C-alpha cells in the first residue's frame, strides 16, 4: 500500500489511482467530490475506508468500479482501466439495505447471479456455474444455506451470501460497503475472522463508519474527506480522526477509540 510521494518495491498493485479528481456537474465549479487522490492497493492488503458523509467514499468506490471517469488522473485495476474484463474481477458487496428481502429466490439463485457475464449459457447457468456458486458458499461457511429463501436469513447470513455472490464471479478484489452495519458484537467477530481468512487469498477494501473496528483490525486505513490520507491501522490516532470529521472522537466512537486499540493489543 502506498500513497502520495512514495514508490512500491512489491508486486504490481491491484488498484492504482494517480492524481484522481472528480466532481459532479452541479458541484464541480464549487468543489470536487474527491481531489488529487493517490492510492495503491497491494495484492495482500486489507484497507478500511472511513470518512464523513459526503466525504467521497461512494465516489471513490464508483471510480474503482469504473462507473464514473475522473476529470483528471488515472485509475487502473489489475494494470488496466476499470472496465470490461478488469471490472469483472471486482467483487462488489453492497449494503444489506440494497437487497430486497422479498425477492422470491433462494440463496443459491442469488449467488449464481455473480456468474452473469461469465456463463457461456447467457442468462442461463451451466454445471460449472452451479459448482462455482456452491464452492463460494462453502468458502464463506454457508453451504448449508443453499436452498434457504433469502427472507429467512439473519443479517450476518445475508452478508455471507453477498460475499459468496462476489466470489462466485472469480473476484480478484473485494469491495465491501458497510458490511458490519446492524451486526451484533459476537457475529461481528465471526465476520471479521471470515474476512481475515479471505484476505489470505485476495485484497479487501471495507467501507465503514465503525472507526474502532477499522483501526483495531485492518492493515491500513484511508481517511477520506475529499482528499485522502493513508495510515496503518495501528498508527491512526484520535487526532487524525477528529481532524477529518471535525468532531470529538468520542462522539463518533463512544466506546473509546484508544480502548479499542488497547484491547486489540492485549493491554
Gist?
By secondary structure, this protein is of the alpha/beta class. The chain has helices at 57-65, 85-88, 107-112, 127-139, 155-168, 185-199, 211-217, 238-245, 249-252, 257-264; strands at residues 15-22, 34-41, 46-50, 72-77, 90-93, 173-177, 204-207, 220-225, 227-232. Helix 4 (127-139) packs across helix 5 (155-168) and helix 7 (211-217) runs parallel beside helix 10 (257-264).
Task: Let me know the largest β-sheet.
Answer: 6 strands, mixed
User: At the first level of CATH, what is the class of the domain at 1-89 and 202-267?
Assistant: Alpha Beta
User: How many alpha or pi helices?
Assistant: 10
Low-confidence stretches: 2-9, 248-267
N-to-C terminal Cα separation, in Å? 28 Å
Q: From the helix content, strand content and strand pairing, which structural class follows?
A: alpha/beta
Mean pLDDT: 81
Largest sheet, spatial ordering of strands: 5-6-7-3-8-9
Looking at the structure, the CATH topology of the domain at 1-89 and 202-267 is Rossmann fold
Tell me what the CATH architecture of the domain at 1-89 and 202-267 is: 3-Layer(aba) Sandwich
SSE order = EEEHEHEHHHEHEHEEHHH
Our estimate of the beta-strand percent is: 15-25%
Which overall shape is indicated by the principal axes computed on the Cα atoms?
A: globular
CATH homologous superfamily heading of the domain at 1-89 and 202-267 = P-loop containing nucleotide triphosphate hydrolases
How much is the radius of gyration in Å? Answer: 19 Å
Percent helix range: 25-40%
* Number of DSSP E strands: 9
Amino acid at each position: 500500500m502506498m500513497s502520495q510521494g512514495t514508490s512500491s518495491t512489491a508486486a504490481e498493485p491491484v488498484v492504482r489511482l494517480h492524481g484522481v479528481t472528480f466532481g459532479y456537474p452541479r458541484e464541480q465549479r464549487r468543489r470536487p467530490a474527491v481531489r488529487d487522490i493517490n492510492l495503491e492497493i497491494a495484492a495482500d492488503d486489507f484497507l478500511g475506508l472511513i470518512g464523513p458523509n459526503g466525504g467521497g467514499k461512494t465516489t471513490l468506490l464508483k471510480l474503482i468500479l469504473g462507473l464514473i471517469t475522473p476529470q483528471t488522473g488515472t485509475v487502473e485495476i489489475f494494470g488496466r482501466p476499470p472496465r470490461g474484463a478488469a471490472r469483472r474481477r471486482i467483487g462488489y458487496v453492497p449494503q444489506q439495505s440494497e437487497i430486497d428481502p422479498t425477492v422470491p429466490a433462494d440463496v443459491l439463485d442469488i449467488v449464481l447471479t455473480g456468474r452473469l457475464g461469465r456463463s457461456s449459457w447467457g442468462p442461463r447457468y451451466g454445471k460449472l456455474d452451479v459448482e462455482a456458486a456452491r464452492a463460494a458458499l462453502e468458502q464463506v461457511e454457508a453451504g448449508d444455506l443453499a436452498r434457504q429463501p433469502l427472507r429467512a436469513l439473519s443479517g450476518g447470513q445475508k452478508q455471507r451470501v453477498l460475499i459468496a455472490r462476489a466470489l462466485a464471479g472469480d473476484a480478484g478484489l473485494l469491495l465491501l460497503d458497510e458490511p458490519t452495519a446492524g451486526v451484533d458484537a459476537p457475529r461481528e467477530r465471526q465476520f471479521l475472522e471470515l474476512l481475515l481468512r479471505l484476505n489470505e487469498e485476495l485484497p479487501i477494501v471495507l467501507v465503514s463508519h465503525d472507526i474502532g473496528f477499522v483501526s483495531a483490525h485492518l492493515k491500513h486505513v484511508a481517511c477520506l474527506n475529499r482528499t485522502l490520507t493513508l495510515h496503518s491501522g495501528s498508527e491512526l490516532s484520535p487526532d487524525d480522526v477528529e481532524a477529518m470529521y471535525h468532531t470529538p472522537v468520542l462522539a463518533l466512537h463512544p466506546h473509546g477509540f484508544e480502548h479499542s486499540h488497547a484491547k486489540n493489543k492485549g493491554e
